[in-house]
Model the fold of this input.
Amino acid sequence: MSEGGLPGDAASGRSFATRLREHLSFPRRPGQIPALDGLRAIAIILVLLRHAAHVGFEDDVPLPEVAGLDPGAFMLNGWVGVDLFFVLSGFLITDHILRRRERAGGSWTWGRYLSRRALRIVPAYYVVLLLAVIGAFPGFEVASEKLGWRVLYHLLFLQDVLPSNIVVAFWSLGVEEKFYLVAPLLVTLGAAKTTLLGRLRWPLLLLAWGLALRVILMLRFPDVDTYDAFFPVFRSPFAVSLDAILVGVAIAFVRRDPASAPRLTSPAGARTVFWLGALSVCVLLVGGEMLDTIDWWDKTLQPLAIALAFGAVTFGLLFGGAGSDDNGQFAINGDRLETDGAETRMDAAVIKQFATHILDAIAEAAAVSEELNPRPNPLRE
Done:
């Protein structure tokens, strides 16, 4: 290490700026998938756009149209970035478990898996939760009513089924932690089957179950027509928000045995799937503000449509295009993959928490709006 505390030898002729860049960079490991890093970046940008939706323009003054499209609606629809994170997490965690099982000859160590997941998520999550509760973030206040009870169920990751009212973005961590418990069981059930349909049986059954549950909830709560009422029933609970994660699980099973779906996993098939997914994502994002008016589509089929669209994009990037190995498949370094899936959700939650706070402060200082949440929609999702 050089005298200034940065790696590298100053005598080598490299400038301080070059050595500083290297020190702060995250070197890409052999076999890492750049496309997935790009998708994570897109997911973060979408969520940040959603949080910025009311910064810089009044609610009753729309942004100028661009090529006949409303950019304000595109920004408001940025909450779908969370669903993209779910697809990536479902794929990464499942693929990691499948590879570990293959290396161990089909055996599986639950304790090691759960301890690694806990060590990567829980400490950082608890720190941010504590800082939010004690008011360490200027301008970000947490209501004191029943705070002890609220902190308790947040510590237990139950903020998806109970109100996520400390940091709203933490609801997705509640969903993720429950998936980490279910994922090994899904892999065990699927890996024992010899056909692709057999491996996908449980993910498909759970997709159907989630859809059926949302239909039942729609019939049970027919008067839900605002986002405030919609969110705790149809959006945040683990049982109804699994669509995107399960699509990622299915992609991982296909990736472990691409010969089981040769037409889809061929470069031509993958490109077709990718462009169908990309077109669907564009239609969803620019076709008008989603969740502006809550109807049957939002309550039942919309989560599945979003999951399939982002899943198709992810599938296409994994099985086609540049960066493939000799077999035409993207290679993933095992150690890198092992960390990506677990860290994705925590990174996203922390980024969203800070972004929300910063954007709120800017909006208040600039006096761009009398109220940051004038309408019941997912501004803080």
